[in-house]
Design brief:
By secondary structure, this protein is of the alpha+beta class. The protein is 38% helix and 14% strand. A 4-stranded mixed sheet has the order 2-1-3-4, sandwiched between helices. The longest helix is centred in the N-terminal third of the chain and has 16 residues.
């Protein structure tokens, strides 16, 4: 197998894995814990894949909401992103952030929801 084909297969597998909701963390807009962290995403979004992959290596508890499956979530994202469905959009204790980095998200958690970081050594 050529190295190029191998890398293509690995990239495809990673794209499939990162587009799946994390078990036990997928929810709806109405079912999410808005006092904690909620990640709004959509399939195929590379920015979402990057953030969601990086969050998987932390101990941070969060909910994921696919805006393509939840009209209420899509409406919320539009309301905080100047009418656009820009994802990832993340809320930390109800405070919205559009396309944050992992570091920005963790800083917001420390500021607005420090109870979620107790025992988190992966910041």
């Amino acid at each position: 197998m050529s190295p190029g084909l191998f890398l293509l297969i690995i990239a495809m597998v990673l794209a499939i894995i990162t587009n799946l909701p994390r078990r036990g963390r997928s929810t709806s807009y109405k079912g999410a814990d808005h006092t904690g962290v909620v990640v709004y995403w959509r399939p195929g979004c590379t920015f979402c894949m990057r953030l969601r992959t990086r969050l998987r290596f932390t101990r941070l508890r969060y909910h994921e909401v696919n805006i393509w499956r939840d009209p209420d979530a899509a409406a919320f994202v539009r309301s905080v992103a100047n009418g656009n469905e820009t994802v990832p959009t993340v809320t930390v204790a109800g405070k919205a952030m559009v396309n944050p980095s992992k570091q920005q998200l963790l800083e917001a958690v420390t500021t607005h929801a420090p109870h979620l970081t107790s025992g988190d050594r992966d910041g």
